[in-house]
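Q: My labmate handed me this sequence with no annotations at all. I'd like to see what the chain might look like in three dimensions before we decide whether it's worth expressing. Could you predict it?
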Amino acid sequence: MPPAKLRSRRPRRNGLLALTPLLLFALLFVGTSLAAADFYAIPMSVVFIVTTAYALAITRGVATDKRLAVFTRGASDANIMTMVWIFVMAGAFSASAQDMGAIDATVAMTRDLLPSNFLLAGLFLASCFVSISIGTSVGTVVTLVPIAAGLAPALGADLALTVAVVTGGAFFGDNLSFISDTTVVATRTQGCRLDDKFKANFRIVLPAALLTLAIYAYAGFQSQAPAQAIPDYDLLKVVPYVAVLVMALCGMNVLFVLAIGNLLTGLVGLLATDGFSVVTWFASMGKGITSMGELIIISMIAGGLLELIRYNGGITYLMRAITRRVSGKRGAEFSIAALVGLANLCTANNTVAILSVGKLANHIAERYGVDKRKSASVLDTVSCCVQGILPYGAQLLMAAGLSGLSPVGIVPYLYYPMLVGLCTMASIAFRYPRRYS
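A: Here is what I predict for the chain of 437 residues:
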């Protein structure tokens, strides 16, 4: 049955019910984790499977095989498949780089170049710089999280904190970069120029960036890092990471960057690491790919689940409910923020979320006289805030997979995305920046 017929037979009064899988997911995961007194004890994949079974059960009006077809369509979405390939390549690169000594050498070089008290703040600045240069938070996470994880012992800091420093900073560029998907989509749907949106957007997030930097600088200078000698390192082993960073900064596709990174890791390992053979290299890549298995499963199940929510009218219901009682510019801006935030919860992709509500946000902006530069900024900042703290979003799943943590364990330390959300709400409430409000 073609998609058009599937949609024509969709139940008309399923909007609120369509959103209940999200509530069930939250209740199941938080409830079981609290009962076990451990957020690492409950596999997210199991919670997603239970939630998906419920979402399939409440999808009425079509046969079971058609419900599964809707789920499969979401699970095999092009964005999901791209994410899966990034997981595969990143897992292979991370494991082979670890086994041949590239991560240890890069960590030692970083410690050698930066004073230990400034490492946390330095990681945040590096993450902001890389992300605004390459325009993608996923690429930034792939490049810098392994280094951050390796630096945690030298800092005497919690592993989740050091990983969160990089992951949070990755959204600085995701939000502001001229080549970021979210920036391009936000400006196109609102009909404003990239540079104009950047000026408004930068004023909104600058306080969040400066406060986050101050927090990390203070934490670094207050930390009691254990005295450790910097081990000797071979600069040749740093080449794969430097090459990956340079290629990313040049704007290459992240998959090509990781493919070349894997090749360089193998070649450098064969030249500079004793006992590292072709067999060892392939075994390392295989181990890394296998380690990403759960994240790949979670990504695909989440994609299918969120497609069921969309199919059942969940996002449409949200749009109508939020815009029903809008009045005035301030209310219009808050409604745009709520729309994109909730759409992001239902899609786990900030670019898709902006695409989903962009036209409606533009209509609201025109009706209530909201400056298009401000509406584009609100769309981008709120979507990056939500995506930045979403445990089933690509960035947190990737960071968790590369560091061996639970995505939920990283969330409490994601200061930058949280502060961006607060600054955006404040900019709406207090009509800031004045020029765009």
